[in-house]
């Protein structure tokens, strides 16, 4: 009986931790590279932010993307005017998630996460721009 009670308590803790990520996580929508490309060609195009380092950005990025390194997003919120939402990406995803957290904390509600990052964009053979 004691093992059953421990299992129930652990299960409740896991469920609580899962739901503790809360409604904010529902404000971030993962989209594919092709879907982001299509959205960028519409009138309701999101602002695209590359959260990689300036050197990474210079070596190749999504055309028209703005470079705001993930560790600067919170300090540069005022620069992000995005009436149709914001799409963030890094090379594969983790740094973009950190930038998304800063936007959520600032009250942004329409955030897109490029699933697979720039690697997925390149794999879809979509255009890349370089400033080098």
Supply database-style keywords.
globular; disordered N terminus; 39% helix; 132 residues; alpha/beta; Oxidized Rhodanese, domain 1; 5-stranded parallel β-sheet; 5 strands; 5 helices; 14% strand
Q: Overview of this structure, please?
A:
Residues 1-23 have low confidence and may be disordered. This protein has 132 residues and is α/β, with parallel strands linked by helices. The protein is globular and about 35 Å long. The chain has one domain (22-123): Oxidized Rhodanese, domain 1 (3-Layer(aba) Sandwich). 27% of the residues are buried. It has five helices and five strands; from the N terminus they run H-E-H-E-H-E-E-H-E-H. A five-stranded parallel beta sheet has the order 1-5-4-2-3. Helix content is 39%, strand content 14%. Helix 3 (54-59) links the parallel strand 2 and strand 3 (66-67). The N and C termini lie far apart (67 Å).
Write the layout of secondary structure elements.
Blueprint: H1 2-20, E1 28-31, H2 33-40, E2 47-50, H3 54-59, E3 66-67, E4 86-89, H4 94-105, E5 111-114, H5 117-123
Q: Which CATH C-level class is it? A: Alpha Beta
**Biggest sheet descriptor:** 5 strands, parallel
* CATH architecture type: 3-Layer(aba) Sandwich
N to C succession of SSEs: HEHEHEEHEH
- How many strand segments? 5
Structural class: alpha/beta
Low-pLDDT stretches: 1-23
CATH topology: Oxidized Rhodanese, domain 1
| End-to-end C-alpha gap | 67 Å
- The domain tally reads 1
Proportion of residues in helical segments: 25-40%
Strand portion, in percent? 5-15%
> Radius of gyration over alpha carbons?
18 Å
CATH homolog superfamily? Rhodanese-like domain
Question: Count the helices. How many?
Answer: 5
